[in-house]
Write a structure and sequence with these properties.
The chain has one domain. The protein has 3 helices and 2 strands. Strands 1-2 form a two-stranded parallel sheet. Helix 1 packs antiparallel against helix 3. The mean pLDDT is 94.
């Protein structure tokens, strides 16, 4: 019997400034994965597809955009910092 490969997908919802909640959850997940596999691992290492709508798309870009070594430029913790620092400018009516 052939073994089928399972695709792993991370889907991130929209919701404006509430994207910070996704960032907090993703930070928790990434920290647990780092405890298992080392501090250099990122969420993008564990998912075949990462996609999102609206603020989820922003988070997707942040955690998957590559640096010069073709590794994710930002950690999930950076996402939370980004929202804390910029939410009022990006989402002025929330």
């Amino acid at each position: 019997m052939a073994t089928e490969r399972v695709a792993t997908i991370l889907s991130l919802d929209g919701g404006g400034v509430r994207g910070i909640m996704q960032g907090v959850i993703l930070t928790f997940l990434e920290e647990k994965l780092q405890e298992l596999d080392g501090q250099d691992v990122r969420l993008a290492d564990y998912f075949d597809i990462i996609a999102g709508t609206s603020t989820g798309g922003l988070i997707t870009a942040m955690i998957t955009a590559p640096n010069s070594q073709n590794r994710p430029l930002m950690t999930a913790k950076n996402v939370v910092k980004f929202y804390n620092d910029n939410a009022a400018k990006i989402f002025p009516y929330h």
